[in-house]
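User: Hi! I have a protein structure encoded as tokens and I'd like to know what sequence might fold into it. I'm fairly new to this, so please keep things simple.
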């Protein structure tokens, strides 16, 4: 073994010292952020921005010119997140980001059980995600034992809004879930939606890819498989990734917000062909009490109810009385989604809804060209406020502008 001289050892120590110093400066860069409201009045807006250089994940503080302190959550992609309280249309505000991380408690937390991950905002349940297997009732067989979906979703007042594993009506509808119905793959026609047809299904690919919590949002990344059972040997047609972000309560605690990003990629060299059809995609199944059509209402951004089926909308509300309490949820479509504004499937009698763009024509998920879709969900108690929901959609669709400068 070759030994280093004292001089070489000294120079090595000096080199390491400067590398550590340079690395610490890289991770402790100070920034100035200018936030612009644009043409909209902003209120409790969720703001995100990318930092121009590597910044260690963690919680930071920034201070406005007026001395207001704001928590900033930086993720592993060096993307910063914070909540903007108020900013009038046409105005801007500048913050100085402190480069030293801080330790905070509160905000949005997660609890990971054996099968269910539960999100809480301000100490109250927001939603659960089945990263493991559910437990079907005796009336249902093993085909309905699965995971990879959201349930329950609750309102700020604790009212349960979703349903799953209902033996009496569509037990394959699972809270908020994703599946395609009418498909063509490798010369076959697997149906990933109707699991009782035994030609396809969607399963979680693993327990959890990644999970986190913080003052601005908590979330997780998980993967699912679209399995073609109609082949002689089951084959995975699509890989799906879900990213869920849950935010603190807004509007004085009257609203809960969470985002869902779905990314689907072809698993083989063959595409998945989606012919024009009336339903499929990311679905929502309402509370069992809403199975009574007189106890459930719909409202679209265009002012329609159940007659909004097949129309192109920015958002849709569904709500009703659950265990005697009135509550609801609005599902917001993003302008970046394919064929936005997307058409909607609203069932004429059941509490069943989703955006479904193949009502407008065929689509193909090609190898190497992922399909990506974004939705925001807002829960509340009582009747929907259409004007306020529309304002929240505007804020989601046209976010606050952020300019970042190194100091």
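Assistant: Happy to help. Inverse folding works backwards from shape to sequence: for each of the 407 positions I chose a residue that suits the local structure. Here it is:
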């Amino acid at each position: 073994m070759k030994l280093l001289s004292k001089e070489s050892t000294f120079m090595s120590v000096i080199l390491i010292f400067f590398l550590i110093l340079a690395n610490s400066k890289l991770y402790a860069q100070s920034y100035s952020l200018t936030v612009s409201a644009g043409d909209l009045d902003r209120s409790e807006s969720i703001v995100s921005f990318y930092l121009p250089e590597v910044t260690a994940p963690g919680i930071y503080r920034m201070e406005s010119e007026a001395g207001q302190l704001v928590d900033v959550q930086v993720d592993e992609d060096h993307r910063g997140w914070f909540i903007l309280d108020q900013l009038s249309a046409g105005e801007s505000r500048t913050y100085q980001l402190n480069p030293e991380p801080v330790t905070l408690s509160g905000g949005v937390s997660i609890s990971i059980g054996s099968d269910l991950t539960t999100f809480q905002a301000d100490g109250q349940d927001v939603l659960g995600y089945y990263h493991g297997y559910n437990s079907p009732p005796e009336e249902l067989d093993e085909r309905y034992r699965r995971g990879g979906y959201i349930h329950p979703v609750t309102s700020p007042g604790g009212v349960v809004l979703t349903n799953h594993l209902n033996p009496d009506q569509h037990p394959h509808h699972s809270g908020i879930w994703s599946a395609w119905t009418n498909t063509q793959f490798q010369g076959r026609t697997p149906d990933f939606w109707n699991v009782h047809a035994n030609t396809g299904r969607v399963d979680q690919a693993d327990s959890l890819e990644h999970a986190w919590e913080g003052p601005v949002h908590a979330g997780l990344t998980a993967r699912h498989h679209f399995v073609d059972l109609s082949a002689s040997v089951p084959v995975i047609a699509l890989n799906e990734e879900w990213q869920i972000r849950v935010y603190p309560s807004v509007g004085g605690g009257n609203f809960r917000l969470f985002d869902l990003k779905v990314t689907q990629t072809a698993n083989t060299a063959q595409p998945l062909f989606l012919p024009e059809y009336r339903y499929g995609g990311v679905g929502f199944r309402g509370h069992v009490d809403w199975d009574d059509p007189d106890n459930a209402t719909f409202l679209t951004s265009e002012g329609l109810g159940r007659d909004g089926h097949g129309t192109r909308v920015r958002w849709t509300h569904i709500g009703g009385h659950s265990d005697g309490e009135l509550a609801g949820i609005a599902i917001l479509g993003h302008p970046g989604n394919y064929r936005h504004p997307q058409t909607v499937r609203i069932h004429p009698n059941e509490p069943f809804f989703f955006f479904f763009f193949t009502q407008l024509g065929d689509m193909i998920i090609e190898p190497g060209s992922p399909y990506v879709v974004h939705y925001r969900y807002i829960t509340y108690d009582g009747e929907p406020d259409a004007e306020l929901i529309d304002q929240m959609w505007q804020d989601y669709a046209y976010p606050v502008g952020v300019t970042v400068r190194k100091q």
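A useful reference point when you look it over: The chain has two domains: 29-104, 108-397. Feel free to ask if any position seems puzzling.
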